[in-house]
Amino acid sequence: MKQYSSFFRIRFLAGLQYRTAAWAGISTQFAWGGMTILLFRAFYESDASSFPMPFSSLSTYLWLQQALLAMFMAWFFDNDIFDSISNGGIAYELCRPCDLYSMWFVKNMAIRLSRTVLRCVPILLVAAFLPAPYSVTLPAGWTAGLLFVVSLLLGFLVLIAFSMLIYLSAFYTISSLGIRLLATSVVEFFAGGIIPLPFLPESIQPFFYALPFASMQNTPFLIYTGYMQGDQALWSMAVQCAWLAGLVLVGRLLMRRALKKVVVQGG
After folding, report:
1. Domain annotation covers residue 36
2. Is residue 266 part of a domain?
């Protein structure tokens, strides 16, 4: 366990060095978040009563989405992992006295968290001082705040576990680019990254909530805004735990099977 914590710390500190890229990302996320909120505002002005949540809650949802984008962005992948599989560098990884799956898992956590730390605080601070109803608000209550923190961690781990399946697909394909593009589009849509899931037709919402993608950013953000409360919030968190366990189990099985057949040429 000590080697994984040390590896996490090294990767996390290395990620904190990219401050200029973080400021560029912050300005981009402010512009994108503002445009998205104004877009939804135009629809709310037509008939606000027809939407599933108040506009202030939607604004909070969207600002959380932008502040924690580095944590949940589906299109981010560590190219070093793909390169190590395709060019044979994985041979060096296998020489290390640690579990390869756990090491890659920790590496992805560290990189995403370091980028999130640099970006989330400035975005939330500025968004908090915007005029209502365009600002980010406090959680719906103390209970919602505590459940949000736990659900946020679970959602983050679910995303990492799913990303591990994309990395492992490189063992079975000549190029993983197609799978990466498909996975990015699927996750963004089904996780509520484009349209919050409560805004979808009620007839298909149960299907969306049953998928692992809803257990990523959607669940913690809806708990924060108070859309999910009580038993519904607890049930959604239980679903998060189930998907996390399932994805990790599948990922480890695929890793074990792939390593039994991997061939490294060139000495």
Report:
1. yes
2. no
Report helix, strand or coil for 138.
Answer: coil
Whether pTM > 0.85 for this model: the answer is yes
Taking residue 228's Cβ as centre, other Cβ atoms within 10 Å add up to 25
Percent of the chain topping pLDDT 90: 46
Please state, in angstroms and rounded to a whole number, the distance separating the CA atoms of residues 121 and 105: 25
**Orientation angle between helical segments 100-128 and 230-261, nearest 10 degrees:** 140
Other beta carbons within 10 Å of 11: 18
How many domains are contained in the chain? Answer: 1
Average pLDDT over residues 31-52: 88
Q: At what angle do helices 55-67 and 100-128 cross, to 10 degrees?
A: 130
Return the ∠ at Cα 66 (arms to 130 and 138), rounded to 5°.
Answer: 50
Four-point Cα dihedral 215, 229, 40, 75, nearest 10: -10
Residues 219 and 97: their CA atoms lie apart, in Å, by 36
Which residue in the block uniquely carries the two structure tokens 């576990």?
161
pLDDT at 267: 47
Report the half-sphere exposure of 160 (CA within 13 A, side-chain side).
Answer: 22
Per-residue confidence (pLDDT) for residue 196, from 0 to 100:
92
| Domain extent for 193 | 2-261
Nearest to 65 by CA among 124, 13, 150, 19: 124
Within-domain flag for 186: yes
> Does residue 209 lie in a domain region?
yes
Work out the average pLDDT over 143-158.
Answer: 95
